[in-house]
Amino acid sequence: MAPTGKPLKPLKPLTSFTSFASFASGRSVGPHAVVVGGGIGGLTTAIALHRSGWRVTVLERAASLEPVGSGIGLAPNAQRALDVLGLGDAVRELAAWQGVGGLRAQGGRWLVRTTSAATAREFGGALVLLHRATLVDLLVAALPADSLRTGTDARLVDRGGPGRPAVVRTSQGDIEADLVVGADGINSGVRKELFPDHPGPEYTGFTAWRLVVPAPERPFAPHETWGRGGVWGTQPLKDGRIYAYGTALVPPGTRAPDDEKAELARRFCDWHDPIPEIVAAARPEDVLRNDVWHLATPLAAHHRGRVALVGDAAHAMAPTLGQGGNQAIEDGVVLAHHARPGGDLFAGLAAYSAARVPRTTAVVRRAARTARLNHLTDPRLITARDTLVRAAHRLGPNLILRGFSSIADWQPPGPPYAAETDAGAHGREPARR
What we know:
Number of strands: 18
């Protein structure tokens, strides 16, 4: 595969892989899954389905796989999901945090101080911060050859059903598929086709900046800082650079009058070191800014017909728990586990929704609660919050960490995986009921 950010070699002209006539007569060449969207959730799902015996095609609208955002944190739950795909150890090798880190107040006082070893013990593994481009490259390399098509706009026109394939429309023709996966992000067109009455994403109230810069000369302890109406995080990457992020309460659509580096300098110049130094090290073009939206109203299910939703298309959340990409990775592995070739596809998709809706709904809501807590603006409430957080940490050094353990201790569905069964090995079609 071509490196991330460069156009991939075009595939042959796209035609209907499974014509309706051959589908109905049972003469299909095998179970075919079409994944709409080439982000982290879509790529992970495609790999998981491929390893389970599906023939996969990934359709990405962008001309190249330019990752949205600069950094991503993979918690042990996502790492265990990647273990199912044989990629977990490659991610763990990228862990950079060693020693002390934690949560700080705007002036620099430590509210929670912990170590990477304590975090690993509490969560069952280390937290890994890496550049999104690194993760995308890792996932693309695990895809089967010629399965990824960039520069292809795709629209679901028929969700399919018993005895009827799902249909995805592209500029090069319609594709009929045994399974379609909507991995097309928070403004998912696939979700709108499946659930037209859903209210869609809502603004969280804050915007986010992200940047990757060279490490400062002076050593620093990795930290997240909760200030007045905003958050800042400074985290190391394996390659020696720093991934940093900031948030602030602003009306949606607000933008800097000059450039976003200048806006960061205005907002964070009086925060503790090394935050001003990190901002100063950035070039204006290094700073990404996006308003943060989430699906405050959960979907009733993550599937309809022969179509399943993963990632932000199913459960977009605030980044305050760092779980958006992690939950998308979980989705892909769980979907492939339940939607096994040779089994009852519709029962499998129902099982997928039953497994994912409660968990992701809980994480979305918890992320929203955390966002309200770490974006307080009333000085009295900020003082009370910081006092309570410090007191809880003194009562039990790992008490704060344990609050995240119910998310990080997730385990993937147990074997046998579809790739280990005769159905997966021989690539038989899913039952059509």
